[in-house]
Amino acid sequence: MSKSLAERLQFTGGSVRAALRTASLYALGALRFAVTPIYGGLGTILAFHRVVEAQPRQRVAWVSDLEVTTATLEELLRLATRDRRPVLSLDEIHDGLVRGTLNHRFMAFTFDDGYRDNLTLALPLFEAYRVPFAVYLTTDYPDRRMVFWWYALEEALLESDHLDLVAGGQRRLFLARTPAEKTAAFQAVARLIDRTPPAGLLDFCRAAFGAERVDRLQATLPLSWDDVRALARSPLATIGAHTVSHPVLSGLSPVEVEDEMRGSRRRIEAALGIPIRHFAYPYGTMPQVTARELAVGRTCGFATATTARPANVFPEHAHHLECLPRYVYGGESLAQLSRNAFTGALGALRFRGRRVVTC
Question: SS3 of 267, please?
C-alpha cells in the first residue's frame, strides 16, 4: 500500500477540503497548456499495486483503489505509444538524470508489494508492447510471513452481516448488514490492525477472518519466490526492494529503518542471485516517510529510491535520487491521470508550487 490507514480512512469519509482540491484540479487541468511546461517535468513515474481483469461490482472501503484493470493498463500503454512518450526503466531514468540526457517527456510503470498478477497479467501486456516495468517487492509476502489482510477483511464483510473477533483480549462485534455498516466495520478493524505489531498480524488475521481464508489468500495473491524468479528472467522487468515487512518507517528507529531497507535487498539478492539497485518507501508520503528516512535511504547504496509524493521528475532530481516522486494510481480514469499527473497539476497543488520536494 502507498497510503497510511489514517489517510485512507480520511479519504473514505470525504471532506470539504477534498471537494475543494478536486475543483482546483479541474481548474488547473483547464490551464494544462500553461501548467505542463512548468510542472510537467521530464516525466511521470506511475505506481500501481494489483492488476485485475475486471473488478467486482460490490466492494468495501478503499480496497478497489489498489487495483488497475488490464484494460486501463493497456490504455495507458497505448497512450504512451500514441504520444511517442518513451516508457523507461528505473535504470534508464537513473542514467538519464545523472548524465543529463533525458530530453523527451517519459513515462514509467512500477508496481508495489508483490502481487502474483504482476507476473500473470501485467508481464504479458508489457511484453506485448515491448516496454519495461518494475516490481518493488516486500519480502515477507513471498516468505509467507504476511497476508494482504485488506482482501481477507473485505471478503469476510461481504460474506456476512457481522464480524465477530477478539482483539486485545476483548470480544468485538461489528455489524455489516448494509454497505455503510460494512465500510464502518472495515474502518474499525483496520484501526485494530494498524495497532497490531507486525509479528502478530498473521495470527490476528487467521483468528479474525478464518485460517482457511487467510491460507488461501496467502497461496494465491502474493508472488512466490519461483514467481519472482520468473519475473526477473524477463529483460523487461526490474525487481526492486520495498522493505521486509512494509512498516511505517517513521515509526521505527534509524537502525530498524536501515535493517528493513538493507534486509529486503539482501533477501531478494540471495533468492535471485542478481544485484538489487532500486527501492521504494512503504506508504511513501508524509509523515510516514520524513527527511530522516530519506537520509537513511541515501546511505543504503540504492541507485534510486521512490516515494509516493505525487509530482513529476525534474532535472534537479539528479541530486536527490533517494526521493524520486511517483503518482500512485487509485482508480482514476485516463482523463484524470492526464489532467492530474502528466501535467503536474496535482503536485503543483499539493506542494504549493514546489517542483522538487526533498523532505
Answer: helix
| C-alpha distances out from residue 338 to 32, 162, 192, 286, 294, Å | 10, 41, 37, 24, 28
pLDDT tens-digit profile of 233-253?
999 999 999 999 999 999 999
Q: Are 52 and 121 in contact (CB under 8 A)?
A: yes
Q: What is the pLDDT of residues 90-121, one digit of tens each?
A: 999 999 999 999 988 999 999 999 999 999 99
Per-residue pLDDT of 119-153, as tens digits, reads 999 999 999 999 999 999 999 999 999 999 999 99
Maximum Cα–Cα distance for the chain, whole Å? 60
Residue 142 is given by DSSP the state: T
Determine the straight-line distance between the first and last CA of the chain, rounded to whole angstroms. 20
Q: How far is CA 117 from CA 121, 143, 266, 279, in A?
A: 5, 17, 24, 20
**103/17 Cα distance (integer angstroms):** 37
Q: Which residue type is seen at 328?
A: V
Beta bridge partners of 136: 112, 240
Q: What does 186-221 look like in DSSP terms, one character per residue?
A: HHHHHHHHHTS-HHHHHHHHHHHH-HHHHHHHHHHS
Predicted TM-score (pTM) above 0.70: yes
CA-CA distance, 117 to 349, in Å (whole number)?
33
For cell 520495498, name the residue.
242
Q: Which of 217, 218, 232, 302 is nearest to 264 (CA)?
A: 302
